[in-house]
Design brief:
The chain is globular, with a radius of gyration of 14 Å. A hairpin with a 1-residue loop joins strand 2 and strand 3. By secondary structure, the chain is of the alpha/beta class. Helix 1 packs antiparallel against helix 2. The longest helix has 15 residues. It has a 5-stranded mixed β-sheet. The chain has one domain: Mannitol-specific EII, Chain A, CATH 3.40.930.
């Protein structure tokens, strides 16, 4: 599986609520039958119940759920939101610029994808380049260079 697939990336200039940002970052995965809408519903349900547990660092959210039956094949989608998405839970706000939807159909693929993402996020060069992206075209070129 290719971690950052050019078919599942996006640069969003509009403002989005956290819920709509998750739908946006998942929509191509649903269209291509990678995940079902039940998977998205579970992410949102879990967020209401537990808060945004998938916000890993400042600026990075990794929305996912442990509903493996609703993931038809492992994949990720990667979205940059020009206007940071505000995840609010119990009056605490976490603003996120990058959403990486993690869709895994078993525990092993879940951990492998997570490990790859963490490796990228620990690379200062990767983060510096990522921070300089200002358009969908730049994101496309960046992903092509990674792959």
């Amino acid at each position: 599986m290719q971690l950052f697939n050019k078919n599942y990336i996006g640069f969003v200039e509009e403002e989005y609520s956290w819920k709509n940002a998750i739908y946006k970052a998942c929509e191509k995965l649903v269209v291509d039958k990678i995940i079902t809408t039940k998977y998205i519903d579970k992410i949102i349900e879990n967020t209401y119940e537990y808060g945004p547990y998938y916000v890993l660092t400042e600026d990075l959210a990794l929305p996912h759920a442990s509903l493996f039956s609703e993931v038809l094949k492992p994949a990720t989608s990667f979205y940059i939101f020009k206007n940071k998405v505000d995840f609010i839970y119990e009056k605490k706000s976490k603003k996120v610029k990058y959403l990486v939807v993690l869709a895994a159909n078993d525990q092993d693929s879940h951990l492998n994808i997570l490990k790859e993402i963490i490796n990228f996020w620990n690379d200062k060069n990767f983060l510096n380049e990522l921070d300089s992206i200002k358009s969908a075209e730049q994101l496309q070129k960046f992903i092509e260079k990674l792959n």
